[in-house]
Amino acid sequence: MKRVVITGIGVVTPLGNTIRTTWENLTKGLSGITPITKFDPRSAAFPSKIAGELKSFSTEDYIPPKDVLRLDPFIYYAAAAAIMAAEDAGLIKQTSDLKLITLNSELFNLFNSAIVIGSSRGGIMSMEKAMEKYILDSKPFSAFLMSSTTINMASSYVSMRIGIKGPVLGISTACASGTNAIGEAFRLIQYGEIDMALTGGSEAPICKLTVGSYGAAGALSKRNHEPQKASRPFDKDRDGFVIAEGAGILVLEELRHALKRGARIYAELFGYGTSSDAFHQTKPDSSGQAIAINKALKDAGVSVGEVDYINAHATSTILGDKAETEAIRKVFGKYADKIAVSSTKSMLGHMLGASGAVEAAITALSISKGVIIPTINLETPGHDCKLNHVTTLLHKEIKIAISNSFGFGGVNAVLALKKLEG
């Protein structure tokens, strides 16, 4: 099978509207969690009143004004991250009128490239606004409402902006969506279907419907008085996740294709595992998670003792962090105490279907730079969450890492990445 590498990264997150800014703020241990401003959360219907919102994000650099009116924000974020990733990989450039021009046209085959983007909630914000306007103000529904809210439209719109005519897929597997999207794009390249893919996840869930529903389920942190300390993965005082928005898109490329055009390579993606708990709608099961981790390691052809770092799913929920700890111990046994573990959700919050894609990007950068981003707010690990936690910035060579993502419905996805050698 063909080898696959990461040659471009684009993100928009609560800590920055570029990968550079996001990375810099992560290394400083800053939190992107603030009080919600997208709606008034003071009602008792919203026990959690904090979120990881984007700051000063503008659509102007990525999307023509007429399209802004016809699209949901999760599509804005996906398009912005995809364009940045493609630019980072040296594939495209933009003119001032937002028209995209491909570079290296003899190597960038629009028919032999794919777009695979995941999302958990898709255009839920636009659907909520449309219903409110209809019910409260008798406003008619937009002719673009359905097309702008379907999960596949993130991929479809990016294909329209860039001109890619190969496979264009939307994937929805709850909070594993972005990771599953990357994994499926990885398979397409491995098996020779395509040479290149723009892939990842996007989410814009900060609206009344989502925040209220997750809050009613008891999944969200209620630490409203100190938002920057609310997301505390693995900590004994964790009380739920902090919802967030954003997107992460990677350029995946067949190795020889990347080398031929002289592309910069962040890391090699060389393993993917996915599984189902077959257990419960919302409660995680460590056995199902362990299956996905083992599958990724088997696919990569590495032993448990070779893994240097785990970018944990670690959402800061009572049951979730406990189950993931158990899964890691089931898979790695005695080596679990030697492998560095951290969660960037402590600073970014939980971007649902986008989280795994952003975390894969951060993991690739960690491998490239030899730096492990810490888990902040982890003051005292829970008795059921004891691992080799990284709580301060750690400079360490990483040869092999895995990135975990687990979602409602018991959907699990794990990626294995390594430093490119030779």
What does this protein look like?
With 422 residues, this protein is an alpha/beta fold. It has a single domain (1-409), classed as 3-Layer(aba) Sandwich (Peroxisomal Thiolase, Chain A, domain 1), CATH 3.40.47. Helices cover 32% and strands 19% of the residues. It is built from 13 helices and 16 strands. It has helices at residues 19-27, 65-68, 73-88, 124-137, 145-149, 153-162, 177-190, 208-216, 255-260, 286-300, 318-332, 345-348, 355-369; strands at residues 4-12, 34-35, 50-51, 92-94, 100-102, 113-118, 168-171, 196-203, 246-254, 267-276, 309-311, 340-342, 371-372, 394-395, 400-407, 411-418. A 10-stranded mixed beta sheet has the order 7-6-8-9-1-10-16-15-11-12, with helices on both faces. Strands 2-3 form a two-stranded antiparallel sheet. A two-stranded antiparallel sheet has the order 4-5. α7 (177-190) packs across α13. The longest helix has 16 residues, at 73-88. The radius of gyration is 20 Å and the shape is globular.
Can you lay out the helices and strands and say which pair or pack?
Elements: E1 4-12, H1 19-27, E2 34-35, E3 50-51, H2 65-68, H3 73-88, E4 92-94, E5 100-102, E6 113-118, H4 124-137, H5 145-149, H6 153-162, E7 168-171, H7 177-190, E8 196-203, H8 208-216, E9 246-254, H9 255-260, E10 267-276, H10 286-300, E11 309-311, H11 318-332, E12 340-342, H12 345-348, H13 355-369, E13 371-372, E14 394-395, E15 400-407, E16 411-418
Parallel strand pairs: 6-7, 6-8, 11-12, 11-15
Antiparallel strand pairs: 1-9, 1-10, 2-3, 4-5, 8-9, 10-16, 13-14, 15-16
